[in-house]
Design brief:
Number of domains: 2
Number of helices: 10
Subcellular location: Cytoplasm
Organism: Hazenella coriacea
CATH architecture of the largest domain: 3-Layer(aba) Sandwich
Structural class: alpha/beta
Subunit structure: Homodimer.
Distance between the termini: 10 Å
Number of strands: 13
Radius of gyration: 18 Å
Helix content: 25-40%
GO biological process, one term: secondary metabolite biosynthetic process
CATH superfamily of the largest domain: Thiolase/Chalcone synthase
Shape: globular
Enzyme class: transferase
Bound molecules: acetyl coenzyme *A
CATH class of the largest domain: Alpha Beta
Amino acid sequence: MGTYVPDRILSNHDLEKMVDTSDEWIIQRTGIKERRIAADDQFTSDLAVLAVKNLIKNYSVSVEDVDFILVSTTTPDTPLPSVASQLQHRLGIQSCGSLDISAACAGFVMGLNLANGLVTSGLHRKILVVGSETLSKVTDFKDRTTCILFGDGAGAALVERDDNHASFIHSVSTTEGRAGVHLYRSGLANTLEQTELAGAGNIIQNGREVFKLAVSTMVREIPKLLEQAGFSQADLDWFVPHSANIRIIEAACDRLKFPMEKVLFSAEYFGNTSSATIPLALQLGIEQGKIKTGDTLLLSGFGGGFVHSSTLIRWNI
Ligand code: ACO
């Protein structure tokens, strides 16, 4: 793992000066205290490169022989070329496949699951999976219902074959396309039917619907995944759900009867960083000495689409 967040901190008190809100309201409704904001000249690929460089530093690994790059982002520098292709060039990787994943906040876990499939099938050997976002660039800082939620950040993982230490145990991914209208980026309509969704490119959401979808998806899918894998909730050392909002996680854990003490959450100091919340939560878990070698972790991403991807892993690092 390697992560990166920009230096600039935007606190709830800063937001009080920008919109009609309060530190107390934001903490009570979301669990977020502050978030990081990229510099004007800092884009998603810049954050991604720095996350990979930190990964290289943390584990003294090389990425020169990486043969595929998967980048999950909802905020690419531009729709074309992909962020993944820019990483190939900027990291000096000689020859590899590259692909951006559009799966919103589920994208990092989706990427891990795809990487596992590509490696176990023998098609590829060493894959970089990156979640990187500059959500501040598509946030309307006059809209108090969304600007309090989002932040910028990136996380990277290296997935490679090791026949003696299997990390991936089981995974599941789901999609409820009918619910796409509840959370989207405006301004990118390509069909007549979508023109009503057109706008300035910012994130638009129906917060209550997103809340309900997130909770119901986790409550429905997690017991199924565990049962298919022959595991129970008691076998989990850590649950790492997408850190959108502490109340979503509390509501899901309450219904699943899962203890909040075993949850890793990154939004308190980074806000909702979409694809990056799960790697940022893992990094916090590592730095705080919570995650130990041999631990069993359940990562669960969910987001606009409405898409979801969960994976059960053994932490072999
Ligand atoms: N500060 C103060 N008051 C606010 C703010 C704010 N920032 N935003 C809204 N309000 C007001 C509303 O205007 C409303 O006032 P009214 O009663 O006078 O009309 C009141 O607070 C309640 O508004 P609700 O929208 O009902 O508030 P709710 O309790 O639903 O909380 C929130 C809003 C935090 C967005 C909640 O719906 C939520 O957590 N939704 C999930 C959305 C989410 O996390 N999205 C992230 C992206 S999606 C993803 O990552 C999967």
